Amino acid sequence: MRYISTRGGVAPIPFSQAVMMGLATDGGLLLPERIPTVSTATLKRWADLAFVPLASEIIALFVAEEDIPRKDLDRLVREAFRTFAHPEITPVVKVGRHHILELFHGPTLAFKDVALQFLGNLFEYLLQRDGGRLNILGATSGDTGSAAIHGVRGKAGMEIFIIHPHGRVSTIQECQMTTVLDANVHNIAIQGTFDDGQAIVKRLFNDLDFKNKYSLGAVNSINWARIVAQVVYYFYAWGRLFQGEWGGDWGRTVEFSVPTGNFGDVFAGYVAKRMGLPMGRLLLATNRNDILTRFFATGSYRIGEVFPTFSPSMDIQVSSNFERYLYYLLQENSDAVREKMAALDTEGGFEVPGRFLDGMDEFRAVAVGEEETLATIRTVYRDSGYILDPHTAVGVAAAMTTPGMVCLATAHPAKFGDAVKQAIGHLPQRPAVFEGLEQRPRRCQILPANVDPVRDFIVRKLG
Fold first, then answer.
1. In 3D, which of 349, 393, 353 has the Cα closest to residue 371?
2. Could you give the count of Cα atoms lying within 13 Å of 342 in the half-sphere of its Cβ?
């Protein structure tokens, strides 16, 4: 299995090199030359597996044995999930007419832990095997930052620089990042939006001299390892239903509702479907920042204003992983992808020709407003006693008219206590890991939202 760029400028490379490269050197995103497909017999065997052995089976399909031996890969996967609080890692629970896929049982109580605990171990393994150092650079709208920091804090050979939008993440999210005082952890709060932070990251990665001199690596979902790790829980959720209430009925398909901002989580579901998971259309749920909903309704991808919402991790207009989907939508035409992404940079958007619009049938997109988000938290709590975080509430609200869907729960509600309190009148119970969090010492550098101050900060820290 080898990897190519969506923009066609990278010769096929092995998985380990793709992981360390992060963003492709031609500015595109890395993808496998082919997405592996699995047989019916394999799917039925996988339905019996617990999460960790299932993860090993799926990830191994994307990694050549001569690149990372299977015994090493299995060990990395086992170690990644030892820190999860639930024995099932990502349990599926029935709430009212839907199922909730709980992805928040990792160390930072967000779905990003599923991939970033694995990626941190993978970075460490490759550095020990191949030598060198890695300086990780990423932008976060909230949860990626803390999950990435906790995945690599204190690990040898690595420094991590995380950019977040100042004042636009929840208090808990900010504290989870800035109270980690390990010497290899560096937090930057920019006076702008997540999109500004992501643009800074991409500019630094596209400065190949700077990237190579300072050995930059990526933890955002632009890193393919993030995507492949997230593919696992789609198969796991299907297996729980197939072996459980479906009673092994092969004729049924699973449907997922995915709250989405950066398109990484829902793209992992798209990959699972291409691999052969019996799945209906993916329901893509956005908040008021609805560029993706508008695209799937019109075929026009055009940047608008970024509005702050109760679901801040989705307050995004430029969805980093969308380019991967665009590559498949445009029938794997790298020239066409380059043209569209250039138009996004210079004109603020692009249109997909009408002949490709039928290819968007894999998705159904719904935008959910602020009042509807709070009302959904309130209604679900009243009817079942279950508390949703506001991002999960966006996905549940979008799925309200379609019973039986699996709704991805992306974060613990205590991470967004103010929004939950506004909906149900009181704060959710705080996990023990949050006790005293706001009172701990913090370390963070506030910078303007442009590339030069961030570059200078990185250079000073790395000497």
1. 393
2. 8
Query: In angstroms, how far is the first alpha carbon of the chain from the final one?
Result: 37
Q: Which residues contact 177 (CB under 8 A, 6 or more apart)?
A: 140, 145, 146, 149, 162, 164, 187, 444
Q: Which residues are catalytic?
A: 112
Q: Edge-to-edge, what's the strand order for the sheet holding 282-286?
A: 92-95, 98-102, 406-409, 256-259, 282-286, 363-367
Q: Considering only the top CATH level, what class is 92-109+225-432? A: alpha beta
Question: Cα-flanking dihedrals φ and ψ of residue 123, to 5°?
Answer: -55, -50
pLDDT tens readout for residues 290-348: 999 999 999 999 999 999 999 999 999 989 899 999 999 999 999 999 999 999 999 99
CB 230 within 8 A of CB 90: no
What CA–CA distance (Å, rounded) separates 161 from 138?
6
Structure confidence by residue, pLDDT tens digits, 401-446: 999 999 999 999 999 999 999 999 999 999 999 999 999 999 999 9
**Does the pTM exceed 0.85?**
yes
Domain definitions of the chain by residue range: 92-109+225-432
What confidence tens digit (pLDDT) does each residue in 329-339 have? 999 999 999 99
Report the alpha-carbon distance of residue 229 to residue 222 in Å, rounded: 13
In this structure, the number of other CB atoms found within 10 A of the CB of residue 285 comes to: 31
50/54 Cα distance (integer angstroms): 6
**Which residue's entry shows tokens 């937090």?**
187
